[in-house]
Design goal:
single chain, alpha+beta, Immunoglobulin-like, four-stranded antiparallel sheet, 4 helices, 9 strands
Length: 133
């Protein structure tokens, strides 16, 4: 009986990353920005002390679809446009259902945290800036 348990261990270890095999470690986010004249910078914090901020994208002409790596870190978007108040928006990732539920969820969490598959950002982010005055 003990040999059978040992024989199944490599299989369990191989399946530990199931969510990262099913879920991609990156995703697209559609940014929609009003007014179209706005210029926005999307950034997020990193764990690199030499480069603590990662630039995700510069957004113009009403927005864009941007491919981002999934992580547990928030994305901050700062927008400026003539005649409008500067706007700051925070996009928070949520834990995916794949990483919360199912057989082996405890085993998959470490792999999914590292690969980013345990998190997902909203598929669309709408930013509407307030006019001055």
């Amino acid at each position: 009986m003990r040999r059978k348990a040992i024989a199944y261990f490599p299989l369990a270890a191989a399946l530990a990353g199931c969510a990262s095999m099913v879920e991609s470690a990156s995703q697209d986010i559609a940014f929609r920005i009003e007014p179209a004249s706005a210029t926005c910078l999307a950034v997020r914090a990193t764990i690199d002390l030499n480069d603590p901020v990662e630039t995700i994208a510069t957004l113009q002409a009403g927005g864009a679809v941007v491919r981002v790596a999934k992580t547990s870190r928030e994305i901050n978007i700062r927008c400026r446009a003539p005649g409008y108040h500067t706007s700051t928006t925070t996009v928070k990732p949520e834990q995916t259902r794949m990483s919360k539920d199912g057989l082996g969820a405890i085993m998959t969490n470490a792999v999914n945290e590292l690969s980013g598959a345990a998190f997902e950002y909203p598929g669309e982010v709408q930013i509407v800036m307030d006019p001055d005055g």
